[in-house]
Structure formats: C-alpha cells, structure tokens
Amino acid sequence: MDGNFNENDISRVVEADRAHIWHHLSQHKQYMNDDAAQQVDPRIIVEGKGMRVWDQKGKEHLDGVSGGVWTVNVGYGRERIANAVRDQLIKLNYFAGSAGSIPGSNFAEKLISKMPGMSRVYYANSGSEANEKGFKMVRQIAHKKYGGKKHKVLYRDRDYHGTTITSLSAGGQDERGAQYGPFTPGFIRVPHCMEYRAFEQDGAPQENYGVWAADQIEKVILAEGPDTVGGLCLEPVTAGGGVITPPDGYWDRVQEICKKYDILLHIDEVVCGVGRTGTWFGYQNYGIKPDMVTMAKGVASGYAAISCLVTTEEVFDMFKDDASDPLNYFRDISTFGGCTAGPTAGLENMAIIEEEGLLDNTVQMGDYMLDQLRALSDKHAIIGDVRGKGLFLGAELVADRDTRAPAAEALVSAVVGDCMNQGVIIGMTNRSVPGKNNTLCFSPALIAQKDDIDQIITAVDGALGRVFT
Ligand code: PMP
Q1: φ, ψ for residue 280 (rounded to 5)?
Q2: Which tens digit of pLDDT belongs to each residue from 364-407?
C-alpha cells in the first residue's frame, strides 16, 4: 500500500457503503443485521498492484480470480495503461453517433490482426450489450433474407451470456433468471457438453461423447425447423456454468452443423477473450471459424469499460447496401461505445500481453497449475474433477467420487472463505443452485508466476483439509 491509508476516511467510506451502496450479487442482510454479532462489514478493495489487492483493513490478498470475475488479465497498477488513457482523455474523451476515433481505428486494426477471418469491430460497453447486438444482427438478417422466419438463437445449458432480460433469455443457468421472467421469445436451449456430468444425460455414450453432444444441437435444430434457426451462441469454454472445457470432437461437429443449416456461429469470448486461455481467443484453441465474436472483460483488463462485437466481412456485407432500405443498415448505437478510454486501454493491454510474452506464460503457468490441482486431487478425495484451459481452471468438489454427487454447497463456500482468511481470493461457480455450486474457480492474472500459483494451491490444500476433515 502507498501509505495514504487513513483509517478514519476508511471507516467513513464503510458507513457510506452500508448506507448507500447496493452491491452486486449480494444479500444485504449480512451488512445490516439488527443483531450486531451477525453483522459483517462490506468488503472494500482499496488498492491493487500486480497480482495483489489490499482491503479496507489493510489486509493483503493474492487475487486468484483477476478482480472477482476473470477481468484484470494484465494485473493491477499498470501505469502505462493509465497514462495512455489520461493523455487520450485530455486530447479527446468522447464523441459518439456515427463518428469514429483514432484509438477506435487503431485498436480495431490491432484486434483484427489477431483474429484471422474476422473483419469488423462494433464497440459497446458490457458483455451483455455486445451479445444482444449479436442477437439483433441475427434477427435483422432473418428479416432481410428469410422473411423474418430464421430468427431463433440457440444457446446451451450452463452457458451464460449476460444479465439483461434478452441475454438472460439466452442464459443456460436458470438460477440467474428464475425471478425475471417473462423472457424474450425465440431463444432455444440445447444440452450441455460437460463430459464429467454426461452420465446425467439420457443416452450419452462412453465413447465419442463430444460428437454425441454436438449431435444434440442438430436434434434441436431439426425439432425447431432449420428454417427458423438463425444463430447459435456458445462460450468456447463455459465459465460461470462450471469451467466446462469442450470434449474432443465437439467443435468440429458444431461447425459442420452450423454450415449445413446456414446458422451463424456466435462465440461468446467475454471471459476467454484476450489471453485468458493462452491464445488471444478461446475459440482459437479449437480451430473454430466464427461468424461473430463478442468480448468484454479482458479487452482492457478493467482499466476502462469496453466490449466489442467482431464480425466477418460476410456478416457486415449484409448490412452495408443502400440505406434507403432500413434492413440494409444496423440501426443500433451504444452511447459509451464512443468513449475513447476503452480502445486506448485495449491497445495498451494487448501491447503488454505481447511485449511481456503473457500468452506463453499463461500456457506454462496454466499447465503448472493444472498439474498442481491434479496433485491435490490425489490427496483430497473430495475433488472429483479438475479441468480448464490456460489460466482458467476449475476443481469440481463431490461428496462421492463414484456417484459424483456434488459436495454440499455450504462446504464449498467454506473452502472459499477459508482461503480468503488466508489472504487468497478464489471463486466458485453458480452461487445459487442447490447442488450445482460445487466448482472452485481459479483465474489468476496472466502475469502469475510459480510462487503465486503455489500460494493459491497451498491455501486450497489447507482449506480442503480443514473443511472436509
Ligand atoms: N458472457 C459471459 C460468458 C460472461 O461470463 C459474462 C459475465 N460474467 C457476460 C457475458 C456478461 O458480461 P457483462 O457482465 O459485462 O454484461
């Protein structure tokens, strides 16, 4: 910490927080319980440097989840990004509508140079927003080419695409949406491809599960009518749904199916995008050729709010003819898509990843961490499965390895809490589905070194030992 830490100021901030902040993903009773013994202070993160953050009590934490939700890929305290953003904001902070900007062009060119086959960048603010813009494009293409019929978008069980009503309508985690219906029509669910839980799916084979899982998508297309399905939106590696890596053979078959039925493949890279899995984009691990790619969190590592929808030139072509026909242009805007902070930060973020060799580091440290997690699973029978790609890893906890019955959620939560007490922040998936919130998540910044990984592993080892005695 820089020494500017003033206890009086901080206690005032905590009280202001208690009085006025509505925290994300939080049940507030814990912060304002009539019984003082039950009341906890909201946690306030005051400062960050590299892989570490400090809270209002001055306690240091190793951040094993890059800002809570897989975002701060290049780590905290990057003056280079802050300075570039500062300079740009003084020169020109914002202009929107149909105008472009220097950082907007520069960043788009850089991004596209890492995405062979892709061509156009559409700026927005959040992952949900970028995804919705992709859904809007599918609908507009349906109106333009298919009399409105081919408008349905398929999404997968356990995938998540955002928090707005329409992105929740494409959400495969019911617990996140149950209280917010009615939903937007035209979004159709396909089964998950989680090999570890394949035994829960009717008819899933032991061999060639990946091809079978992809074939389930074709079944849904045939049941709905191929002439009604315009898009398929998938995470390359499912994040919040349980860190689900695709089984062998899955993506090749998905790609074939999209081609066969003329369905646009929309890859949601909001979590995997910009380095997280050791490649620039998660889809690049699997030879996928998407039509649309959305990204947000890692694009600027949290130094500015930015998301992008990137399309092929073929998709763009469908929107670029004579604008006297409203079906020929994408009548959409994002107010803060015109803020120059995002692309400026994005450009620096990518330069850091390149200059510091962070993709290679992610592959090496990811492999190292996967091995360490596997070693932990030899020691703790509670770990049923370890999976992930790059520095995007999960350990699924089970009460019984034979039946794969999930470990009790309260105990999984206790592991996260125990690590927090040890000064290590880790995550867990699906915080509100009884029985399904059993995967510990790890996504340290791409700058992680062996010592950092060892500290996380030691904390988890200790926590598992204490919680599951
Ligand atoms: N897609 C995925 C895969 C996500 O994990 C998230 C956020 N966790 C989103 C979309 C939504 O992004 P945002 O919260 O920025 O709207």
Answers
A1: -55, -45
A2: 999 999 999 999 999 999 999 999 999 999 999 999 999 999 99
DSSP characters for 404-467?
Answer: TEEPPHHHHHHHHHHHHHTTEE-EES-TTSTTT--EEEE---TT--HHHHHHHHHHHHHHHHHH
For the Cβ of 270 lying below 6 angstroms from any atom of ligand 1, the answer is: yes
pLDDT tens digits, residue range 429-448? 864 455 568 999 999 999 99
CA distance 233 to 271: 14
| Residue 160 near ligand 1, beta carbon < 6 Å | yes
CA of 172 to the centre of ligand 1 (A): 13
* Host H or E run for residue 149: none
Residue 242 structure tokens: 């349980």
Q: Give phi and psi for 308, each to the nearest 5.
A: -135, 145
Measure Cα distances from 197 to 87, 158, 290, 390 in Å: 50, 12, 27, 22
Q: What pTM was estimated for this model as a whole?
A: 0.97
Centroid of ligand 1 to alpha carbon of 115 (angstroms): 21
The CATH T-level fold of domain 43-74+358-467 is Aspartate Aminotransferase, domain 1 (3.90.1150)
Architecture per CATH, 79-355 = 3-Layer(aba) Sandwich (3.40)
Composition of the chain by helix, strand, coil, percent to 5: 45, 15, 40
Comma-separated ranges of CATH 3.90.1150.10 domains in the chain: 43-74+358-467
ipTM value > 0.90: yes
Return the number of other C-beta atoms located less than 10 Å from residue 262's C-beta.
13
Q: Which part of the chain has CATH 3.40.640.10?
A: 79-355
- Contact status, residue 328 vs residue 88, Cβ threshold 8 Å: no
**Nearest to residue 272, comparing CAs of 305, 303, 311, 245?**
245
